[in-house]
Amino acid sequence: MGEIFRDQYDRKYYFWSNEGDEPPHIHVRKADSFAKYWLGPPLWLAYNTGFRRKELRFIEATIEENRELILNKWNEQQRKLHPGK
Q1: With contact defined as beta carbons under 8 Å apart, do 7 and 62 qualify?
Q2: 36 touches 46 (CB < 8 A)
Q3: Share of the chain above pLDDT 70, in %
Q4: What is the pTM of this model?
Q5: Tens of pLDDT along 34-64?
Q6: In whole angstroms, what is the distance from residue 76 CA to residue 70 CA?
Q7: Nearest to 59 by CA among 44, 71, 73, 69
Q8: What dihedral angle (degrees, nearest 10) is formed by the CA atoms of 55, 61, 65, 69?
Q9: Close Cβ partners of 33 (under 8 Å, ≥ 6 residues apart)
C-alpha cells in the first residue's frame, strides 16, 4: 500500500501497490470509514462506508487540490510495476 498523505483530520489517502489494470483512483480511510474515488475526470465516488456527506465533500475537495500529486504517485508506481509501458 502506498500512502500518499494524510489530511488535517488524519484521514489516510492511499492506493495499493498493485491493483491490476484499474484506472487511477484513490482510497481514503479513517478508523472504520472507507471510500474509493476514481480520478476521472470527473472525480467519481466508487464506494463509501462510514463517511458522512459533509466529510465526503471535504475529501473530494482535498483530492481535487492534490490531484496532480496523486496522479504523479500513481504513474510512478505503474512505471515500477510495468517498466517499458
Answers
A1: yes
A2: yes
A3: 96
A4: 0.91
A5: 999 999 999 999 999 999 999 999 999 999 9
A6: 10
A7: 44
A8: 50
A9: 49, 50, 51, 55
Separation between Cα atoms, residue 75 and residue 32, nearest integer Å? 28
Cell for 17? 501497490
Average pLDDT of the chain? 92
Question: pLDDT at position 6, please?
Answer: 97
For residue 6, the 8-state DSSP code is E
CB neighbourhood size of 20 (10 A):
6
Instruction: Return d(Cα 30, Cα 35) in angstroms, integer.
Output: 9
- SS (HEC) of 14-71: EECCCCCCCCCEEEEEECCEEEEEECCCCCEEEEEECCCHHHHHHHHHHHHHCHHHHH
